[in-house]
Hints:
This protein is of the alpha/beta class.
Amino acid sequence: MINLLNAKIEPEIWLCDILLCMNELVYGLSALGISLNSVQLGQFETYYQELVDYNSRINLTAITEYKDVQIKHFLDSVSLVLAGIKGDEKLLDVGSGAGFPGLPLKILFPAIQLGLLEATQKKARFLSEITVKLGLSGVEIISQRAEDTAQNPLYRQKYSLVTSRAVADMATLAELTLPFCAIGGRVIAPKKGDIEEEMDRAATAVKKMGGRVFKVIKVELPGLEDGRKLVLLEKISNTPALYPRRAGIPAKTPLI
């Protein structure tokens, strides 16, 4: 249900009726026991409109239909709450692209300290602009390669939570994400389909990065009944200084 108690109707919602706006997202979130206030509804609506407008000039996503964005981008992003995200996490989204899953999670949990790591300058520019238009604070846009950023002491092993959506297979992804995790931190990797073989190949990389596979959670939400899963890695020891290797090597030569 939409929580309208004491909610201020924001001007961003002029594009849709308050009870109809983002109805697919609202319905999906209800399965998680989560409600949105009018401010959050307005932010998601603004996000959609700006995404489609920007996408007409610069390719950000192939998914642009109103219903599809609600389910396949917004709901899919916030499905990470199934992994037990706290509202005050220090979160890094690696290869953020158009901001998924980091920005929807920030809308849901405004207290999150969010880093959006995106090497493509045009996409990073969109992230900067949309963050301002959504009125979000506590967001840092980092326009660098993950391999380089993870060697920077400002970011290395500084995050309680790291995520990355549709960037690489698990062997490569482990090398690109676990170095950012503080000990005790977690990586949440959204995956789809049969991932048993992929996880077997990733075992060496996960271990070398100082991690372990903690659990795999099935995602079963309205519109997302297509075998989606969340792979959780836990950081249990320091990542050796050698890793990640220089830019491009983790993808070309995974540690398998």
